[in-house]
Amino acid sequence: MRQAGAVIVAAGRGTRMGTAESKQYLLLDGKPIIVHTLEVFQREPLVSEIVLVTGEQDVERCRQWVSSYGLNKVTKVIPGGSERQDSVYKGLQELAAEWVLVHDGVRPFVTGALIHACCEGAWESGASVLAVPVKDTVKVIDGEGFVSATPDRRSLWAIQTPQAFRRLELIEAHEAARRDGFSGTDDSMLVERRGTRVKIVEGDYSNIKITTPEDLDFAAWIRSGRQRRGEDKHD
Ligand SMILES: Nc1ccn([C@@H]2O[C@H](COP(=O)(O)OP(=O)(O)OP(=O)(O)O)[C@@H](O)[C@H]2O)c(=O)n1
Ligand SMILES: C[C@](O)(CO)[C@H](O)COP(=O)(O)O
């Protein structure tokens, strides 16, 4: 069976969340958010191994969770870098797999079906990202707080993770970005700028990135809805 390795990045400081504890370690239904995320990748048969990238000061407690929650696909827990891009780059060095999924540790509502769809998208086309159509009207604002343009919403999609690539191609794209001083807000941007066509695979509106305080309320709500519908039972 074709498989992919995963780099899960969780070395951010959660500045926009503003909590004393980094957001990836806050409890959701009694379990750290990062553990919820890892458990989805652990269960998915298409995932062969996982590298977890955390803050230097959190490596040890994450290793303990890996052991106590039985996350035996996590082969390495390593310290990240100062930007998300640096953390992904470090994680990519620790995998051997031909294909890699890059995922935010703070997107715990990813599902096996989404991981599966993302892998299939990459295997068919070379690179793929999850995304959902934008529901709001989006405007471009000038430096003085006035509208300068209203892009056609039909061509706007909000990008999520996971994102799937050939691992060596993504490493080369990261190295080119480092050489050029280019910083992207996702990994797709790094291969796009080198001419790779990236396939959009439809994600899910509930695959939120926990970023700001109100996201914790959304997260609790998504979680309780899944429990009510019995979607949290996995074995
Ligand atoms: N140096 C960094 C920065 C971010 N991340 C990870 O990248 C994901 C998406 O980043 P974001 O939501 O922006 O997290 P933070 O950087 O922690 O948040 P903020 O920008 O508000 O500080 C998170 O899982 C975060 O832990 C990382 O591994 N290393
Ligand atoms: C990769 C990402 O989650 C796609 O939506 C997002 O771009 C990360 O951005 P952030 O600046 O780290 O929030």
TrEMBL record:
Site location (Transition state stabilizer): R16, K23
PROSITE patterns, per the entry: ISPD
Enzyme class: transferase
Name assigned to this protein: 2-C-methyl-D-erythritol 4-phosphate cytidylyltransferase
Protein role: Catalyzes the formation of 4-diphosphocytidyl-2-C-methyl-D-erythritol from CTP and 2-C-methyl-D-erythritol 4-phosphate (MEP).
Molecular-function GO term, any one: 2-C-methyl-D-erythritol 4-phosphate cytidylyltransferase activity
SUPFAM superfamilies for the chain: Nucleotide-diphospho-sugar transferases
Family recorded in the similarity comment: Belongs to the IspD/TarI cytidylyltransferase family. IspD subfamily.
GO biological process annotation, one example: isopentenyl diphosphate biosynthetic process, methylerythritol 4-phosphate pathway
Organism the protein comes from: Paenibacillus yonginensis
EC code(s) of this entry: 2.7.7.60
Pathway: Isoprenoid biosynthesis; isopentenyl diphosphate biosynthesis via DXP pathway; isopentenyl diphosphate from 1-deoxy-D-xylulose 5-phosphate: step 2/6
Site entry (Positions MEP for the nucleophilic attack), positions: R153, K209
Keywords from the UniProt entry: Isoprene biosynthesis, Nucleotidyltransferase, Transferase
Catalytic activity annotation: 2-C-methyl-D-erythritol 4-phosphate + CTP + H(+) = 4-CDP-2-C-methyl-D-erythritol + diphosphate
